[in-house]
Design brief:
The strands form three sheets. The chain has a seven-stranded mixed β-sheet. The chain has one domain: 2-Layer Sandwich (Ribosomal Protein S8, Chain: A, domain 1). A hairpin with a 4-residue loop joins strand 2 and strand 3. It is α+β, with helices and mostly antiparallel strands and 338 residues long. The longest helix has 19 residues, at 91-109. It has helices spanning 10-23, 28-43, 52-62, 91-109, 126-133, 187-196, 216-221, 230-245, 252-259, 277-281, 288-301, 309-321, 327-337; strands spanning 5-8, 73-76, 81-85, 111-120, 138-142, 164-168, 176-180, 205-206, 223-224, 267-275, 323-326. The chain is 45% helix and 16% strand. Pfam families: Ldh_2 (PF02615).
Length: 338
């Protein structure tokens, strides 16, 4: 039997989530920025990154593993590397502070990077990417997580889910955006299977004995697998190096040791790189945005789809009709305010 649903506007859902985080002790700045990325996930039909994430954030706050009222600090030495110290808070407020400066520097130099240090990261990376594509820039974002993925050929957690996201601006259209974990599936997807009491595909994870499992409980206690075997393992290791070691922040094993368990959001860093297509294409024939559309049209012309198309279609729908939440989801939100 289908559950009854409630429909909230984007602003109504946003106000509710902000209130939940303010009641949990976050400052207005932190609550607003954190709510933005959660509401964006729900708006786009990404259930594993929508209001589902609230419970984990609240657990992390209650455990004292995130600074609720920290004010992020931007450091700009005039180079292509900008830095924001999140001071132990959730990452969205730090990115929101650094993004305008990153965009300006990328337009000036052609390429610039934003290093976010000492942040607690729980969300997808496409909100950061789309902020920059909305400014006309191409962008790449990466970060580690906590050790939960076995390297190819291994059986024990060592690497993080280590997401990578990229975006290309498309004038008057939704950008080209992909965002995926370098594990074969996001940990949140396995958690959703656990909650639903359903099995996972056999190639997603191994149990504590290193044996393949379809039981999400055993998978969460064991280790996930990298996507693409040795290729995903190598990309994940690159992410550990660039967004952990290189920026002077925690790698996934260090983040897990700091956290103590995998039920809370991890503390580490993030690296975002922004590119100006006009600067890179200067002096060469053709408009880079027009040439990109030729490529996209060729992909679509073969019957393939571009990444995020379904997400953007859901966004268009919810922006028009509102977000539908089940009675269980509404009760969950209300319980967070109790």
């Amino acid at each position: 039997m289908a559950q009854e649903t409630s429909t909230l506007s984007i602003s109504e859902l946003s106000d509710l989530v902000v209130k939940i985080f303010e009641n949990a002790g976050l400052s207005g700045q932190q609550a607003s920025a954190t709510a933005d990325v959660i509401v964006a996930g729900e708006r786009d039909g990404c259930k594993s990154h929508g209001i589902y994430r609230i419970e984990g954030c609240l657990r992390t706050i209650a455990a004292g593993k995130v600074e609720p009222k920290a004010k992020p600090e931007l450091t700009d030495d005039g180079s292509a590397i900008l830095r924001v110290d999140a001071k132990g808070a959730f990452s969205p407020a730090a990115f929101k502070l650094g993004a305008p400066a990153l965009a300006e520097r990328a337009r000036q130099l052609g390429v610039a990077s934003l290093v976010i240090n000492s942040c607690t990261h729980f969300s997808a990376l496409w909100p950061e990417i789309e902020t920059l594509t909305d400014m006309g820039l191409a962008a790449l974002a990466i970060c580690p997580s906590y050790a939960s993925v076995a390297p190819y050929g291994g059986k024990e957690p060592l690497l993080g889910t280590n997401p990578i996201a990229f975006g290309w601006p498309r004038p008057s259209k939704h950008p080209y955006v992909f965002d995926f974990a370098t594990s074969i599936a996001a940990r949140g997807e396995i958690e959703l299977h656990r909650r639903a009491g359903t099995q996972i595909p056999e190639d997603w994870a191994v149990d504590v004995d290193g044996e393949p499992t379809t039981d999400p409980e055993k998978a969460l206690a064991g280790a996930m697998m990298p996507f693409g075997a040795h290729k995903g393992s190598a990309i994940s290791t690159m992410i550990e190096l660039l967004s952990g070691v290189m920026i002077g922040d925690m790698t996934s094993p260090e983040a897990l040791e700091n956290l103590g368990n995998t039920t809370l959001s991890p503390h580490h860093g993030e690296l975002i790189i922004a590119f100006s297509p006009e600067k890179f294409a200067a002096g060469r024939p053709g408009n880079p945005f027009v040439r990109a559309e030729v490529l996209f049209d060729a992909i679509l012309g073969q019957g393939a789809r571009l990444p995020s198309q379904r997400r953007f279609a859901m966004r268009d729908q919810t922006m028009r009709d509102g977000v539908q939440l089940t009675s269980d989801e509404m009760q969950s939100l209300q319980s967070f305010l109790a």
